Amino acid sequence: MRPPVLSGAMEIWINPACSKCRAALSVLDAEGAGYTVRRYLDDPPTPGELRDVLTRLGLEPWDITRTGEPVAGELGLASWPRDAAAREQWIEALAAHPVLIQRPIITAGDGTAVVARTEEAVRSVLPR
């Protein structure tokens, strides 16, 4: 079981092999931001955590799905409906196959979250 992320703390979901993740960590470090790293491939989010993050992002599961991954092809994601009726199916697929989750994702202590693929996106969740 993971320790809870403290209120006010940031968590960043990363794949250490990802250059965008390393760049996001560099920005956080340069700004002296406090954060917790979650290697989401080793510690996949639960469906409930994904629902929470999606709410915080204001996105749907297909919006954060890496559809170019081989497993996306194996699952036939390209043909899955992108509607409310299929939402849980997408969430379950992301939970079962975390490699499909877009990265990095930062959840901020103020309740916001961002897919932090650019420096601007990372900076958008830093405390002012």
From TrEMBL:
* Entry-linked Gene3D superfamilies: Glutaredoxin (3.40.30.10)
Question: In its keyword annotation, does this UniProt entry include Oxidoreductase?
Answer: yes
Which CDD domains does the record match to this protein? ArsC_ArsC
Q: Per UniProt, which keywords does this protein have? A: Oxidoreductase
Q: Which SUPFAM superfamilies match?
A: Thioredoxin-like
One Pfam annotation, family name? ArsC
The Swiss-Prot or TrEMBL record describes its family as follows:
Belongs to the ArsC family.
Q: Under what name is this protein listed? A: Arsenate reductase family protein
Which species does the entry assign this protein to? Nonomuraea salmonea
Ranked from the top, the taxonomy reads: Bacteria, Bacillati, Actinomycetota, Actinomycetes, Streptosporangiales
